[in-house]
Amino acid sequence: xxFFMRSLHYMRFICLQTAPLKKSVYILSALFLIAxxxxxxxxxxxxxxxxxxxxxxxxxxxxxITPDHILSIKPTRYQPSLGLQGRIEPIKQINLxxxxxxxxxxxxxSDNQWVKKGTPLVTVRRQEILNKAIGSDNTETNIEAELNTxxxxxxxxxxxxxxxxxxxxxxxxxxxxxxxxxxxxSNSKDRTTAKQSSDLIxxxxxxxxxxxxLSVQAGQKIEAQTVLLKLSDETELHFISTxxxxxxxxxxxGQTVNFTAEDRVDKFTGQVSxxxxxxxxxxxxxxxxxINNEVSRNQLAPDMQVTGRVDYGQIEVGTIVPKIALHxxxxxxxxxxxxxxxxxxxxxxxxIGQDQRLTRQPIEVIEYxxxxxxYLIAGISSDSLICLANLPIESxxxxxxxx
Length: 403
Known about the structure:
By secondary structure, the chain is α+β, with helices and mostly antiparallel strands. Helices cover 27% and strands 34% of the residues.
């Protein structure tokens, strides 16, 4: 047997002897090879937005970063605007409320009925005056006594002129009193009827509109401050939004407002009709009348939530930055349409000044672009550089070293 054949036979012998360990050796070898594989550079140097996230080297007086951490200013023009939000409601609406206790005599309309201006709605009666009319016996007695006194005075005058006929005068006096009593009874009934008639109040529609929340019925006695019904005109709509008092100089009557409504695809137009400052709490109330057209008439209805914007001022310049540049801010609120904040949204950003030192500067987030996943911000001068590194607050004032 040659040397080669003997060697082959020896190796076969070894393999047969170690067959039970063969599978384990293969597994360990595979694990060793996997563990030795290098980490992908892309995983180390990029975030979810493919932005550099290398950890900078920070010393006592400097911060060492890579060129990938530096972003130059890219000026972008934009129109400043304010976000408005409110709920659609009729401009003309009124709650008919009892100022005192009343008894409902008649209900002349039905719930959800459209009525014209001047239409009788409800007939009611004042309860207090009705009680006085019921106790009219005392009033009648007082009136009768007063009339009797007047008749006696007349007889006395006649007696002084005709003293020789006292019996006739007395008889005449009795006749007058009897006649007056009959007249009193008739007058008292007429006056009570007149009072009862005058106590009836017919409530009429102040404007054309729809009857809502009709909550009373004939014969019902109601207490003061009870709402009888609501009347609203759905043909003229508006919404009221609140703004910080600081926005008072940026908004005025007549400005156009573009807005959207919940569950509606179309966009609508409104106009600022009133701006009112209130003290408690200190804020600005902005009234926006809906432009009445075919789109708004067919789609808008009371109680719909709407969101819109009103432009103000001149065109300004901002810059575009990735999400990694913005700190200390929740951006989820502008990552949905209309991709603009309702209120001023402030964030912090690291700036490299011309002296190559770091400053932490507050800025305003204006808008989000869902296509590029970047943000428009305002408040940075064009001669600055943006640092994309996520630095600790202690980095403020340190010198930047690029390596």
